[in-house]
Amino acid sequence: MAGKVTAWVGWVWFAAFTLIALGLFNITTGLVAVFNTKDVVAWTNSGLAIVDVSTWGWVHLVVGVLILLTGFALFGGAGWARFVAILLVVVNLVTQFVSLPVTPWWSLVVIGLDIVVLWALVVHGEEAERAAA
Predict the structure, then answer these.
(1) Which of 12, 104, 105, 130, CA to CA, is 20 to 30 A from 22?
(2) Of residues 90 and 42, more confidently modeled
(3) pLDDT at 28 over 90
(4) In whole angstroms, how far apart are CA 124 and each of 12, 96, 130?
């Protein structure tokens, strides 16, 4: 017998909305980087590094589109969408950590949102699947 669905399932819907927003954020960041014709100067421990951000922009763009589509699929309560969302959020965490030296405040905000989404999907995701069934 399936367990009772509680109000905690709302966290999964919050995660789906947040995934859509994160996808749009990444798409926007990716597009800005792709169409940026200037190099970015970043400080490293060994001095200055000049970075071409257009390649990194494509990474953000692709990850953003995948996150956006998975966010929409998560509303259907599909188990695969929850699994894919968890994987994509982990990938997004890594990309944001890499972007941390260039956009520290923005990356920290997105990292915080990623952590909340991971918590919602891991802790309450199975309950959302039962609610959709």
Answers:
(1) 130
(2) 90
(3) yes
(4) 6, 24, 10
